[in-house]
Amino acid sequence: MKPLKLWLLLSTGMIFLAGCGVSERAPLEVAFRSSISYLDPIRENTVISNSIYCNLYEPLVVRDSNLRITPALAVEWSNPDDRTWLFKLRANVRFHDGTPLRAR
Known about the structure:
10% of the residues lie in helices and 29% in strands. The protein has one helix at 47-56, and strands spanning 7-11, 14-18, 61-63, 69-71, 74-81, 84-89.
């Protein structure tokens, strides 16, 4: 099997991949012009931090081009009362190390 070849170009939060010669298991290094103070998206909300967070975390829902809320990690949700939200998560979701996601 040939090694996977990737180019990574970051521009305003968009990622483009093309062939270049990086092995399949090589670490990926990404450079930004600025740094972030936290890896917690609740503590920092800047353009650069959000660009990094979108490569680390997948939200339950996202907004489409018409700003409608659409599924991401959650496939459906309900709001049975004023203080409760129930989310049904997408099947077979795994973390980077292969560990399955289990809602508890």
